[in-house]
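Could someone model iron/sulfur cluster with this protein?
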Amino acid sequence: MAERMLKFVQLAQETPEKRDVAARRFDFDEIYARYAPPQAAAQASRCSQCGVPFCQVHCPLSNNIPDWLKLTAEGRLEEAYEVSSATNNFPEICGRICPQDRLCEGNCVIEKGFESVTIGAVERYITDTAFDNGWVKPIRPTRERAESIGIVGAGPGGLAAAEELRRRGYQVHVYDRYDRVGGLMIYGIPGFKLEKEIVLRRWKLMEESGIRFHLGTEIGRDLSFAELRARHAAVLLATGVYKARDIGGPGAGLDGIVPALDYLTAANRHGLGDMVPDFASGRLDAEGKHVVVIGGGDTAMDCVRTAVRQGAASVKCLYRRDRANMPGSMREVKNAEEEGVEFVWLAAPEAFLGDGEVSGVRAMRMHLGLPDASGRQSVEPIEGSHFTLPAGLVIKALGFDPEDVPAACAEPDLGVTRWGTLKVGATSFMTNLQGVFAAGDIVRGASLVVWAIRDGRDAAQQIHGYVQQTTAVAVARTLS
Ligand SMILES: Cc1cc2nc3c(=O)[nH]c(=O)nc-3n(C[C@H](O)[C@H](O)[C@H](O)COP(=O)(O)OP(=O)(O)OC[C@H]3O[C@@H](n4cnc5c(N)ncnc54)[C@H](O)[C@@H]3O)c2cc1C
Ligand code: SF4
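Reply:
Sure, complex below.
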């Protein structure tokens, strides 16, 4: 092993080639190219194969990273794919959009003094290569089971659970109110981070695996929750969080002030070839406008970079804290800056100006005060520090809360936390309703794709145990 690995001393970190700003500012293609095979092998060989792999510990899926890095370094890519896909349903997606700087790569032990192994890029390379070579096959369960499972939500949480249950032979039905599969991966996250083709090829594979999708079907509207429960041996709610946090103040109701997800969904749908009236009318199109995005998370980063690509006259991101306290991934902040986005740190909106249509944002400078009970520094306005930014489009990207799921399901007994997320058993993933499980953002609050996959996998395991147990009890009753 030694001669192939531990190359971090003589070999510098090299990320896959990043497209030039001049080109990438004008399209929605991914900004990173794929490694060429020798480059992938060389970068994988930088792994030190350390005794305690902190990368694996800090990967929500506990991926066997050192193993697939070693196999990649040795050119054994089909085996690398087997190892990588054993713990992750969508490695090529995580490789593209996980915030690796906070997870696996941020905990790579060679980081001190040498830059970390490019784990995400190698993970993506392995599975993209596997798709090219036909190694990624539809699921063919060794035995079909009669029981069916109903999954609400075709985001990463629901899809990971669907795959794991289908693997065990269940008849899996996935319901989604959207017309396409993928949840936020298809309509939230823009193509420059995750090209839509990557999500669409997974959808095709799942259909070939025998997973049945019921799209355009909203539970609580098109099909009642009670009917759903009656149809299936168990139900998984993986509905995500969609209630956008709002902002008030004078002028908050002016035209041209829009929620982030409406804006991103319109851009993604337009890219997919759909006719989007609000995009066609210009309401959700940034072209030629001065754009101000309010917020500092990943959603805000996706909005500013989308606006750049739509040809905005200027794009500013208004965030009330500073760069160091920003929740968004630093990699994305850097990409946005390169693409011409201006960050206005330590500033918060006070009022929106305009007559019918928004024409500007009046903002105030802020400073960071003492830490509160949670340890986060408070934010305080600086008296007399008002300033105005011109704005023809203001995008509100302040985060998301859960919708009222018990009301939507007409099931007031469904237990929720004080944040409105669904309450589940710590390891059982079951809500307080028999046979009703929940996973992903609707349990955690707004989180990450990789955590939704983890939850979906774990919930599937618990659903399997539950169905086995209830079937055994039913058989025992019949016999007695
Ligand atoms: C703009 C944006 C950018 C992001 N960028 C990243 C990133 O770079 N990296 C990362 O790891 N994470 C990112 N995230 C977070 C990530 O997308 C989510 O954490 C993840 O998608 C959650 O998965 P989920 O399966 O729980 O829910 P979702 O992906 O939200 O899927 C839920 C699905 O349930 C459906 N649904 C809801 N209610 C019903 C109902 N009543 N009936 C039928 N269907 C219903 C919805 O239509 C949706 O398809 C981003 C989020 C946003 C908003
Ligand atoms: S799934 Fe995410 S955290 Fe885990 S190894 Fe891949 S990129 Fe890193």
